[in-house]
Amino acid sequence: MRRIALLAAAIALPAAAEPTQQELEKIMQRDFHARGQATMDRLSQDRLQRVCTEAHDRPAPDVAKALEADELKTIAYPQGSLIGDWKRGEAIAQSGRGLTWNDKPGQPAGGSCYNCHELSPQELSHGTLGPSLRGFGKARGAGADVQRYVYGKIYNAKAYNACSQMPRFGVSGTLSAEQIRDLVGLLLDPASPVNQ
Amino acid sequence: MRLLALAAALALSSGARADDSAKEIQRYRQMVAEGSPAELFELEGETLWKKPGGPKNVSLERCDLGEGPGVLKAAYAHLPRYFKDAERVMDLETRLVYCMTTLQGRSRADATARVFGTADRPSELELLSAYIAGQSRGVAIEPGMAHPKEKTSYELGRALFFHRVGPWDFSCASCHGEEGKRIRMQELPALHEAKYARPVIASWPAYRVSTSQFITLQWRMNDCYRQMRTPEPNFGSETTVALIHFLTATAQGETYHGPGNKR
Fold first, then answer.
1. What is the mean pLDDT of residues B49-66?
2. Nearest to A114 among B184, B234, B238 (CB)
3. Is B224 one of the annotated active-site residues of the chain?
4. Are the Cβ atoms of A24 and B159 closer than 8 angstroms?
5. B interface mutation test: which of A6, A20, A31, A158 has the most B CBs within 10 A?
6. pTM of the entire structure?
7. What pLDDT does A10 receive?
8. How many CA atoms lie within 13 A of B241 on its CB side?
9. Which of B:175-194 have CB within 8 Å of A?
10. Confidence check on the interface: ipTM exceeds 0.90, yes or no
11. Torsion-angle region of residue A39: left (phi > 0), alpha (psi -120 to 50) or beta?
12. Angstrom distances, CA of residue B40 to CA of A95, B34, B225
């Protein structure tokens, strides 16, 4: 009997509903303040962020395809070779600076690449959130298609995997075309330590 | 002596050769775990707790942290929780600010003017957190989960944990959603899972060796959002308390053993 009473009590308790994305955005608008370059408009989700949040990063295949197609349209390729200077690329890959409220606005940002990826074998302090990119160019060559893929992936990772955890470095204005070219160099140049 | 040993461990780890680095890091972590500089902060926090202050010139000793006025035993292990007098869910730091304003007569602006300290000068809230958390050692972590507002707070925290936002599209789960991952050399606990949340939450707040600072969960929420590239969360806001509530509830049942040590 006691058990039944307990069960009944448990069922009778109002279950707190999960807040909707719109409610969440309203709460965050109330609970945050702009600081430095981190302005309040950053709290508005775009469609991709909303869909990925709702799907817990596993959208249905057709939804993912549609998102990826839209993201692909954002990629702007520069003229000429996409392979820049791998030495500058290495410095960009090392730097985790940029876009936070205590970063100086106007200073060039880094790509935070080593935070998540293994690249040059000399750098032992690398993260594992993303796949290892060691020997990336050695395995794939540096042909025009590979260059376009790598440039595009850094510019907008979501064009290839809708709910990827990798930032959209070009779309977000984090890295310039020149910086992305240097990172393509780091990954594809046969002289780069990544390919040794 | 302990600090000397720490310094030696640091020097060793930074000078270590590549193939020894993992072993050295392991050794250094063990040394850090054995001798806790957090104790010094606990002692300073106790002095501060008992010191009269504010326009009313009274101490915080009659502050009700949820177990009754002045009761410190087990108080931290049962936070965050709903407080009827404030009509909201509060974590330790938010509650301390409440007591500073109600008991000591200080303005909220004054009580929150300097919430995060430095290595040279810890903040009042950091010192008080160290002392009060220490009074929960050996107590099972059981945040409030019965009141409707506690349930709402937990649900809000859980939703925030997975909410992708900002120029880099991050949610808390972007880094803390998968087991066995690292940023650089730092291991990342998958904090929505009890197995990983338990040891982490049981050791916060903590002394951070790399910056010589005592850090709290409000600081942790703040600095995670900084790295997520969002605007800054307000100290003690419903958002930060809800996230702390969600993480603490996920660690429910673990015996509190902090304040701990961090890298």
1. 98
2. B184
3. yes
4. yes
5. A31
6. 0.90
7. 47
8. 27
9. 175, 178, 180-186, 188
10. yes
11. beta
12. 35, 14, 29
What's the CA gap between A92 and A114, in Å, rounded?
10
Between positions 58 and 97 of A, the ones with CB within 8 A of B are none
Contact A53 B171 (CB under 8 A): yes
The token duo for B131 is 């002392």
pLDDT in tens, A40-95: 999 999 999 999 999 999 999 999 999 999 999 999 999 989 999 999 999 999 99
* Tokens at B5, concatenated: 């040993």
Q: How many CB pairs under 8 A join A and B?
A: 130
A53/B175 CB distance under 8 A: no
Chain centroid to CA B136: how far?
A: 13
Domain coordinates in residue numbering, chain B: 1-35, 36-262
Q: Which fold has domain B36-262?
A: Cytochrome Bc1 Complex; Chain D, domain 2 (1.10.760)
Task: Check if CATH label 3.60.15.10 holds for domain A15-196.
Answer: no
Q: How far apart are CA B83 and CA B75, in angstroms?
A: 13
Average pLDDT value for residue range A130-134: 97
Subunit contact B239:A28, Cβ cutoff 8 A: yes
φ, ψ dihedrals at B90, nearest 5°: -130, 145
